[in-house]
Amino acid sequence: MFKGAHTALVTPFKGREFDEVSYRNLIDYQFENGIAGIVPCGTTGESPTLSHVEHKRVIEVAIDAAGGRGLVIAGTGSNSTREAISMTQGAEKAGADAALLVCPYYNKPSQEGLFQHYRAIAQSTSLPIMLYSIPGRSVIEINVETPARLHSECPNVMAMKEAGGKAERVNEILDTLPESYQVLSGDDALTLPFMERGAVGVVSVASNLIPSKLSSLVSAMLSGDHQSAKQLDAECSILFEGLLTLDTNPVPIKEALALTGVMTNELRLPMTGLSSAKREQLKKMLTNLGITG
Q1: Domains and CATH numbers, the chain
Q2: Active site residues
Q3: How far lies 22's CA from each of 14, 45, 190, 262, in Å?
Q4: pTM of this prediction?
Q5: N or C, which end of the chain has less CB nearby within 10 Å?
Q6: What is the DSSP letter of 208?
Q7: By the 8 A CB rule, do 31 and 59 touch?
């Protein structure tokens, strides 16, 4: 179900409010350039700073703007199980195709707590669910045994976005779960090694800016054209590294989109923009890559 390149959409703001016009334009740009799906309200979408009303609206706009051209995988995760259930049910009612549920952050549950958390959500919805393991932000990792237990009880838990930085995790997951269970990279720079080990795609930050490149890279891997995939990966590697190291996501990607005239670089506190020096560094990088003039 989740094969392909999916864009973890930024959420544009203008004058402190959700910029719906820029968001719709961004979504059009994704599907016009071969992206298989979009992910509204993930980490890249600054979901922790959205009110519940805004969160609901952003997902509704994404579904409407997608118009059936690809998957809409709504970010509905929370460190509160009750809140995650409410947001997931809301996304299902709005017409989302699936839900992405980040590992609960800050409260640091045990693996049993994770199992109970995700099982409660899965049993509250018929949406296909993609788990999201990102220990760099959540502190804890989703152990392989937890999705195995979940999938056996709740078949709609059917994929994992893996962002722990270790390609061997793909093998661990696929060796433990049924063949139908899918793994996607949560890190642009690891898309190629993940897919070499059996992942079926990526949930990408960089594709906000270069959707055609990411779509082509993933399509090449899925079709067995590893040479073309390696070439595309090499072309994108500097950007992947820059978006990862210049500052915390989504600061660099928002700045890049602003430099290309797609939207403002407005963020919500506690996120702040790039320093002048880093902005110049990013600007030079985009110019060298031929993304800006």
Answers
A1: 4-223 (3.20.20.70)
A2: 132, 161
A3: 9, 13, 29, 7
A4: 0.97
A5: C
A6: G
A7: no
